[in-house]
Amino acid sequence: MVNLSELENDALVEIFNIGVGHAAAAMSEIVNEEVTMSVPSITFLNRADAAALLGSKRDGDRICGVSQHYDGAFATEAILMFPEDKSLEIVRLMVGDSVPLQELTEMEQEAMSEIGNIILNSCVGTLANLFDSELHGSLPVYHVGTSTEILAVFGDQGDDVVLMLHIDFVLAKHQIHGYVAFVLDLSALHDLKEQVNRYLAKVFGTA
Amino acid sequence: MPDTLQRLTLLESIIGAVNLGAIVLDENRSIVLWNRWLERHSGWKADTVLGRDFFEVFPELQHKRIESAITQALRDNFQSLLSQSLHKSPFPLYPQAAATSDGRERMQQAVAVTPISLPGAPRHCLIQITDVTVAVGREKLLREQTMVLRSQTFSDGLTGVANRRHFDVAIDKEMRRAKRSGSPLSLLMIDIDHFKDYNDQYGHQQGDTCLKQVASALATMLNRSGDVLARYGGEEFAAILPDTEPGKALMLAEAIRKGVRALAIENGHEDGAARHITVSIGVATQSGAAPLDIDQLIGAADRALYQAKDGGRNRVASTAPATPPA
Is the dihedral of CA A58, A59, A61, A62 positive or negative? Predict the structure, then answer.
């Protein structure tokens, strides 16, 4: 569906790893404890496959998502997603609360939104910096629902592509896997590929 | 242009009237707007902060998340959110503005940092501060009530020790742990002797007081971390003793028997002499050498308790082939 050369793929993985590295440093500063994050791989999927990947554990499992809209050099809806129980774990590790309730409270949802805000801005910020371009970012919005429901919030054009980042998040010996999805329409995908190539040309000094 | 002037006045009045804090920084991070809400909650008038560097006014916020949020707004055109849960009260703002801020609790704050694009001028950024003190208080209350509710579900209303439900959960957990680690697990069944006589003679209220006294004495003696003392039924208590060999369990049981007798609670007379509240205790142990399931362990402790009762009460009996207490 999307043909990225190995070089383009590696460049994106590297850029996103720089991005989540910044995010991890920001989060370490907040909690005064080491937080590490990495992006082991990225995948391009269509929307249905992306939803299936996120909901693969059990049908109907709830996912927590934090989304932000970006536009400028390319337009995308970026969504950080964790299974609901994992987002409870992350927030409680970050906030250090002792009485866990069944769902995230209003204040915990806001903390989750901030975590998403930090990660998404770092990823997109690194991308924009290296591409020498500018994007405008919105405030984070918190969602909870099945993966299909969450992805459906962002319109439903059949030809949308989802760039999926696998994220490993480690805090206080807990390792938590999550995803960042960038929903791109075909023109945004085209813009992104062009930016990657321009960046590679600059790095290698060739066109 | 009177129209423009009027709109400007209108906007200024609105910014002055809104129920949140608004700070605007220019591209050099100098404060160019400080609304009335901030004056009210900080005690600082706008003319004392306008034109000053933001981090000169708030030196303690330097290198904190708000600094990167400001940088991201001014440089990258990104918006940031600083949640109350992760930052509590970054700004020295108070629910009621006053001359002094000593010893008062800061307002709980949620902060949003937003870039502001201006035609023909470098980008500015807006810092919005919302008072979430009420919501934070509400959640604190919710957590406290959850704690109370949770402890009520698992404790005995009269004596305050664990209830039967807690016992069932705890024995299951400890049994699995003991089997995994191959460590011994002992169980004491403790029954108050002649408690029916006590109730008949002194009444149920006095009976309740006696139960409370005994329970509290038992709890004091079973104070190793991991020990669970539960009210098993009427005047019967059970103690789960993880990592405890049969010999050690018998010693503990014997100490408990003596301790209850030492409370010297009178329970009528027998053969002309004052009789006191005593307990009979049955001891059983499951170990790698003698594995038992939960029902077998409880059954063994129960049988030992009957032996102690049959043997004349105020004594300890064990079904385990262990050395008797010295």
Answer: positive
Q: Residues with Cβ < 8 Å from B23, sequence gap 6 or more?
A: B31, B33, B34, B35, B38, B54, B126, B127, B129
Question: Who's near B313: CB < 8 A, 6+ residues apart?
Answer: B193, B194, B278, B280
Token output for B273: 């002499």
Q: Is A100 on the interface with B (CB under 8 A)?
A: no
Listing DSSP states for A70-93 in one string gives EEESS-EEEEEEEEHHHHHHHHHH
CB within 8 Å: A121 and B139: no
Residue ranges of domains in chain B, CATH in brackets: 2-137 (3.30.450.20), 158-318 (3.30.70.270)
- Bridge partners of residue B53, in order along the sequence: B30
Under a CB-based contact definition with an 8 Å cutoff, are residues A22 and A126 in contact? yes
Would you tell me how many other CB atoms lie within 10 Å of the CB of residue A82?
Answer: 25
Q: Tens digits of per-residue pLDDT, B145-185?
A: 887 887 778 888 899 899 998 899 889 888 888 887 889 99
ipTM: 0.85
Q: Which residue of A has its CA nearest to B137?
A: A107
Distance between CA atoms of residues B190 and B239, nearest Å: 8
Choose the closest CB to A110 out of B68, B83, B147. B83
Write out chain B residues lying below 8 Å of A72, CB-based. Answer: 77
| CA quadruple B194, B197, B198, B204: dihedral sign | positive
Q: Using CA atoms, how far apart are residues A105 and A91, in angstroms rounded to an integer?
A: 10
Catalytic residue among B60, B235, B236, B270: B235
H/E stretch holding A5 reads: none
- The distance of A121 to chain B (nearest Cα, Å) reads 7
Longest dimension (CA), chain B: 112
**Cα–Cα distance, A112 to A107 (Å, whole number):** 9
In CATH, what number does A6-204 get? 3.40.1550.10
What are the chain B neighbours of A113 within 8 Å (beta carbons)? 81, 83
In chain A, what residues touch B90 (CB-CB under 8 Å)? none
A1 in contact with chain B, both atoms CB, cutoff 8 A:
no
* Amino acid in the structure at residue A128: A
Structural domain spans, chain A: 6-204
Name the token pair of B71.
């940088």
Q: What is the pLDDT of residues B288-317, one digit of tens each?
A: 888 888 999 999 999 999 999 999 999 999
